[in-house]
Specification:
This protein has 340 residues and is α+β, with helices and mostly antiparallel strands. It has nine helices and ten strands.
């Protein structure tokens, strides 16, 4: 009798030991739960949903659900996460309810990341019930109307846009037509007449007062400036291709045009010495250079006397040319108006 009792007690001892092992193993397994601060909600009511997690080991990272886990009728206001220990964690969502019917939130998925392994645990679903604040006799009424998707082509908007485009096109056409009729008046810029004598005098003054020949010793530049300034004078006033001609060709032109004998003489003295410096590699002295400069001054003084009337006529012709251009454009406009 005692042996049977001992066997019976030992059997129950093994059963209890197995149950305790199962319970102990479950206590260290991953465990997650979800709960809401209120299961009955009115429109616009703010409430919280709490997700709690029990772990069997530490994990590198725990990823709780974000705003995409909630339906559009629940607006997520903020989120708070509370890390208690390496084996326990929780998160609190603060939400606002905008529904008009009962809803059930599906289980939330929580990701457990450790090295390269990722596991997922799921919470229990949460039921949220709509609570109306209307009297019992108006319980069937809904404080919010369902949102209907109005499909179809927006004809009213299309007509408005088409009218605006037509108005813009008409305004542009009117402006363009008016702009084409109005003649564009080009502003005529009148360049003042510059006397060839003044240009020659400016060059000679620069060589005398500003260019330091004694310091530079650049006789080739000095002589070239003297000869080119006289050549430019003849080309501008007498219409002789003096700058492109050789000295011999230039003197033929001067004789043919009946240029003053004293001016030709001064020109010959300057050009002969300039040609020696430029082509014969002749190195003059400083006194030679200023002697040649004096020949150019003699040319300038003689030109003032001889060519005064010629310069006056050239100035008059130059100014008359601009007046004729302006008068011609005015007459053309008047003729066009009379024709219309």
């Amino acid at each position: 009798m005692r042996l049977s009792n001992i066997r019976s007690n030992f059997f129950w001892f093994l059963i209890l030991l197995g149950i305790n092992g199962v319970l102990l193993q479950n206590s260290f397994a991953q465990n997650s739960s979800a709960s809401a601060s209120s299961d009955s909600l009115t429109v616009g009511e703010i409430f919280t949903i709490s997700l709690k997690l029990q772990l069997d080991q530490p994990y590198d990272k725990i990823v709780f659900p974000d705003s995409s886990a909630f339906p559009p009728i629940l607006e997520l206001l903020n989120t708070q996460q509370f890390r208690v220990t390496d084996f326990a964690d929780s998160v609190l969502y603060r939400l606002q309810f905008f529904g008009n019917t009962d809803i059930t939130l599906p289980p939330f998925r929580i990701l457990l990341i450790n090295a390269r392994d990722t596991n997922a645990v799921f919470t229990n679903p949460i039921a949220l019930y709509f609570k109306t604040v209307l009297p019992s006799e108006d319980a069937d009424l809904k404080p919010l109307k369902p949102i209907f998707d109005i499909s179809g082509f927006p004809w009213a908007l299309a007509i408005i846009l088409l009218a605006l485009l037509l108005a813009a096109a008409l305004a542009y056409y009117t402006w363009r037509k008016k702009a084409d009729k109005e003649p564009v008046q080009e502003e005529v810029t009148f360049e003042p007449f510059v006397s060839p004598l003044t240009e020659l005098e400016t060059t000679l003054t620069y060589l005398k007062q500003e260019y330091d020949l004694a310091a530079t010793k650049d006789y080739k530049y000095f002589y070239t400036s003297l000869s080119d300034s006289i050549r430019a004078y003849f080309e501008e006033l007498y219409n002789i291709p003096a700058l492109e001609s050789t000295s011999r060709e230039l003197f033929r032109f001067l004789d043919a045009f009946g240029v003053d004998h004293e001016m030709i003489k001064s020109t010959r003295l300057v050009l002969n010495r300039s040609d020696m410096v430029k082509f014969a590699k002749y190195t003059p002295t400083l006194d030679d250079a200023w002697t040649c400069y004096q020949y150019a001054i003699d040319f300038l003084d003689r030109a003032r006397l001889v060519d005064a009337s010629r310069i006056s006529r050239k100035k008059s012709n130059y100014e008359a040319q601009f007046k004729n251009d302006e008068t011609g454009s005015d007459e053309t406009e008047e003729t066009q108006k009379e024709t219309e």
